[in-house]
Amino acid sequence: MIERDDHQLRNGFEALRREDAAGTPPFGATVAGARARQATVPRHRALRLAAAAVAVVAVVVLSIWRERDGVRLQIDLATVRWRAPTDFLLKLPGDELLRSVPQLGSRGLDRRTL
Amino acid sequence: MAADLTAELEQLHAAAFGWALSCCGWDRTAAEDVLQASYLKLLDGRARFEGRSSFRTFVLGVIARTAREARRRSALRRWLPLASLVLGPEAADGRPDPATALARADDTTRLVRALERLSARQRQVLHLVFYEDLTIAEAAAVAGISVGTARTHYERGKAALRKLLEKERA
Fold it and tell me: Which of A29, A68, A69, A79 could serve as a FRET partner for B102 with CA atoms 20 to 30 Å apart?
């Protein structure tokens, strides 16, 4: 059964092949068409390269233009510094003494007063 | 060398055109365009035969790849209107040629109509086996798929094609 069906399909394709063969363009004409196409390929390639170059130049010009005229976002870090409500707990008494450089002769660190 | 290549191509010309027609959905203009582009690749050495398969399998593979590229370019043209400036004019609209369809006998018209309703892979594998007389392994090499996948497409495609033909006859 399967073989007979295969045979039918094969006959169908064989008929299709015969019909296609009758309408096949001459080999010489197809090769001539291919050769003619060969002559136009460099022009296509040049067009593609030109299009790519135009796209690159456009991107560069756009980026320069935006850099010059565009408003840059300035971020003031002082305004975004966050302090926790419990920061005061980390403060030690006499903390300012540790942050300043002691000076000889000044009142706070005078030997006579120590 | 070039003369040998041309002579070998001439021997395969009818089979190559039939395969190009199948790859282009029986659009004659598109098939001629794909065939010319494939011959150009072969003649200017962009597609070089290295003896890994038979010359026939190699040529049919080049045509299949070229048809795929043509389909991609066509899709790109549809999606990007400006792409036609770079890619050039479209060769054909991808529909079967009415003159070719009219010249066909009823049986072959039914077969072509049924083949068009199969998946592209099933149609390719059946065409390569029944029309081009390739083995399933050779058909797999041309279509760029594994032998197992080609065998599956072959069996399922045959079953689907039989059903479609029976429906067409009824």
Answer: A29
